[in-house]
Design brief:
86 residues, mainly alpha, 3 helices, 71% helix
């Protein structure tokens, strides 16, 4: 027997994945920004903020695609009527 998963659990798993993705990508962006700030930009703060923002933006885009798969380029939603006509 297959174990059924409630819709609440599916949404919770998606939120957990989004939060983990946000922490990882923002952390990587922060790290890259610190390294770039120290090595290239004479210890300025803007590379840290910029790269952290890029990480957060990438995580937001991935989370948006996770909750709304119709926004993935090349994806087509097949209705039940189209499925039955095949």
């Amino acid at each position: 027997m297959s174990k059924s998963t409630s819709s609440e659990n599916i949404v919770n798993q998606k939120y957990d994945r989004c939060l983990a993705d946000l922490l990882v990508k923002a952390g990587v962006g922060f790290g890259v920004g610190v390294v770039a700030s120290v090595i290239l930009f004479r210890r300025r703060t803007w590379p840290v903020a910029l790269s952290t923002g890029f990480g957060i933006g990438a995580a937001y885009a991935d989370c948006d695609r996770l909750f709304n798969p119709a926004r993935i380029p090349g994806t087509r939603i097949i209705t039940q009527a189209e499925e039955e006509s095949k």
